[in-house]
Amino acid sequence: MSLPPIYDHHRVVPAKTFDDLKVGDRYPLPSRTLGDGNFAAFQAVSLDNHPIHYDVEYCRALGHPGPLAHGLQVLCFTAAGAGLFPHEIGDALLGMIEVKAKVLKSAYPGDTLYPALEITELKRQRTTGVVAMRAWVVNQKGETILDGEHVYLLKL
């Protein structure tokens, strides 16, 4: 199903096809400073009630300055929909087909996270194309705290 023609008049960026994409294309995503709301919202969605994610005194007793952001929470900040990539490819996006990530450092309340995506591989198939993207998050100290990969399927 295609979007109505009027959609083209409201594009945020010019449309691209699979063949317009290039290895090395970068997509910075909005920065976020972690606050109590982020932790509470993720706890509600994930149902993860381990005290390492919400009990300040428990965390301090373990030597942490505060609660640790859940690794999946940090990964969520790399969602392509927060940036321009899905706006460029429009209705060619069939879906995400793979995601993986390594959590390299902890993130705490007050940390500011800077996520980004970069195309690392393009595989043309008969009727579809596969786009692999490096996904990473850097904190306010310039430390990479998450490094991973997203893989998307696009129609040609």
Automatic annotation (TrEMBL):
InterPro entries: HotDog_dom_sf, MaoC-like_dom, MCH/BMMD. Residues 31-133 form the MaoC-like domain. Pfam families: MaoC_dehydratas. It comes from the Bacteria. This is Dehydratase.
